[in-house]
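Hi everyone, sorry if this is the wrong subforum. Our group has a chain we'd like a structural model of before ordering constructs, and none of us has done structure prediction before. Sequence below.
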Amino acid sequence: MTWIGLGLAIIAGFGPMMIYATLITVFDRYEKEPLWLMLAAFGWGAIVAAGLALVVNTIFGVGVAVLTGDERLTEVTTAVISAPLVEETVKGMAVLIIFLLFRREFNSLLDGVIYGALVGFGFAATENVLYIFNGYASGGLTGLVVLTFFRAVGIAFLHASLTALTGLGLAALRVWGNDLRYLMAPAGYGLAITGHFLHNLMASAENGLLCLFGLGVNWAGYLSLLFFMIWLVWREGKVMKRELAEELHNGLINADEYRTACSVPGQLSARIAAFGRSDTQGRLFDLLGQLAFSKDLLQRRGFKREPDLARQIDVLRAQITGLRS
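Answer:
Right subforum, don't worry. Here is the predicted structure as tokens:
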């Protein structure tokens, strides 16, 4: 029965998070991120971040238990002190690595949100397995169902939303041109830790109303992030129209390609129509997205800060010309 419970916990823990992770990539319409890098972000959260957090939090908890001998105090201090700092750090490390090593793929605010959320979903998947299996061990199938609902619905987007704040801060550091950008990375990381701390503090309180209030705050945050992402997609559409207008005028693309590239429904229809026949359409839209956001980033940051972008823009134009011919 133990193996059956573990198998069910893995399915219930990973299944919903993988679905959510897939759905959040739907927002990545104009300048699609590499699939392998998105999978790596999810994998880091599920394996590296979750593993490191488990080890460090356990060591911290053992230390508190040895010093105090109080089981309740150990649980609370681990939840509200160790967990927020440790978990947001090990999750944020993945976004920082992408920021440092794959800067070409990190050129919009939405990129930071998506990569951060993917890491968070991966972390939540592994954490869910542990909690759901414990629920099964203590309460059988009923315990498994209750924990699955709570983890996969009630707080499903907690880790994703928190790490998205870290990603957003790093994205602002990458794409903004003013000095305020230097404050955004630590601000995003700090907000992630603070939000995690407040959530765990309310969840640790032996007060049903406070826990319910905390759940409401969580969902207010989730919905706020959702609307923010919708706004970012709308804003990216404006960037596409502005930056590709020059390419239309210069003859790099025609009017139909311009209209389709600047429209989410248009791109989606064109990609579906070409599915199974040729990836030329999809490749064209991917290159146009990279071109538009590279031009936008160069305007924001300036040639001195981004000396490689001008060359990259020329390469993208050449690739588009070659693809269309």
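For your construct planning: The chain is about 85% helix and 0% strand. Residues 117 and 160 are 4 Å apart (CA to CA).
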